[in-house]
Amino acid sequence: MTAAQPVLTVVREIKAPPATVFAFFTEAERWLSWMGVDAELDPRPGGVFRMNVLGDGYASGHFVAVEPPSRISFTWGWEAEGSPVPPASSTVEITLEPTPTGTEVRLAHHGLPLEMFGVHQGGWEHFLERLAIRATGGDPGPDPMVVMPT
To answer: Do residues 63 and 43 touch, judged by C-beta distance below 8 A?
Structure first.
């Protein structure tokens, strides 16, 4: 019997309704306003998910579930040769629960190698903070994590 693989979980309260938050995960222009520099999104089960997150390479996979306005799930992995998280090798599941002041966003990243938890947790926390600003009409400003390719 094998032990269950740990799941990276990040929870963030956003002061916007679930339908508003959901749109920031399904519309490329909105998504790019808080995360990434280029994206190809086809938000339907089996549709393409491909995003240049920091300007130095693409994460890719496909959408698994799209259930407005409460749940979205997609596979995830990096296209870089030799990546410990190859394309579509892990799954990101986002659930949106209404709260009295907005939405609880629960992001669960399944299938990550343990050695990749730290970098992915830091990234998801950073980007959900930017989403919290953007989804309420604010401007998170230029992303300091973006790498400008030379």
So the answer is: yes
In the chain, the amino acid numbered 136 is T
> How is the beta sheet containing 71-76 ordered, strand by strand?
8-14, 102-110, 90-99, 71-76, 58-67, 48-52, 38-41
Which CATH code is given to the segment(s) 8-134?
A: 3.30.530.20
Domain ranges (residues) in the chain: 8-134
Query: For 62-92, what is each residue's pLDDT tens digit?
Result: 999 999 999 999 999 999 999 999 999 999 9
